[in-house]
Each structure stands twice: as C-alpha cells, then as structure tokens.
Description:
Structural class: mainly alpha
Helix content: 55-70%
Shape: globular
Amino acid sequence: MAFFHQDWCYEAHTPAELVARHLPDGAGEYALAVRRDARALLDGLPSRTLEVLWDAGTQYGMGWRQTTGAEWTRTVVDVCDTWLATQTQVPPLTEADTEDGLDHRDEVVAEIEAMKFLTAEVRRALVDCAHHCTPDLALRTLLRAIEYAPEASLSEEQYRRLNGLGSALHYGEFVVQNVEYRISDD
Length: 186
C-alpha cells in the first residue's frame, strides 16, 4: 500500500505497473508477503470492503471507476505470481513473516474500535479484516490508516498499546514508529 504516495503516477502509468516496478527492488520474500496479504484479503472480504481498506491504507485513493476492490486485489496477486515465476530461488516466508496475530485478535479489534477519528466504515472494514483475514494484516492496515487519516490523533497510552502489539507480532522498529508523530499533547 505504501507505493501509492502523491507522486506514484510519475513512477508508472497504471497501479499494476507500479506494483511490478517495486517488486524487483525487494527480496523474493517481499513478493511472497504481498501475495499472501492480497490473497487473504481477496479470500476473506467482499469487494466493497477491500475498496475501503485500500483507500484507508493509501495516501491517495485508488479511484474505483475502472475497477473494483476485488479486481484490483486479484491484479496484485497476479503481478506477484508473474514476478515470482521469473525468479529461480525465493526462500519461503519464515519467523515474523509468518505471524498471523491470532493470539492478539481481541487486542487488535479493541484498538481498531478505539480509533474514533476513523470513519465507522473504515473501522468496520478493519475489524472484518481482523476476523476474516488476520489480525496482523488488520493491524498493519490500521497503522497505515492512522498515518494517512487527516484527523488522526493518538494518546500516549494508545501509542504504547500499538507498540506493544507491534512487538508481540515481531514488527521491525519502524512499523509502529511511523505513527508516533500522531501522538497528541492533549
């Protein structure tokens, strides 16, 4: 989702081309992880919910006039599959990359529901993601939504809890830290 920043259209002509251009820059594990997440979304959620999550988790919305959330997510899977088919050796996902967060589902859902600056539709989509995909994917998408929501504001306690969940799910130091600037002084 991070590919879709304000200038992405200068990097590629289509969203699918943008994803394909970023895959060679990363390791094979990255393509496997993106494909795994896209498959989980596609298998677990209806198209409209996917659109809500893509819009919440990207800096600039996709615009759904020419495609649906399901079609776009299928495109991401297909781009990953095509790229992976050209690779001779891609190590399997291991350790933190296989974390699903099932042991932390209730905590993730509670954090999602506490984010009142997000619309009810976004919170509902994130909760559905936690229940029908994985809590890990829902938390990572929530962090992106916090980063891009114009009215986002976190208390020190909320940030501490998010950081604790990130540690429990074996996130690297910058995954949760990317929203630290949203801590409010109030």
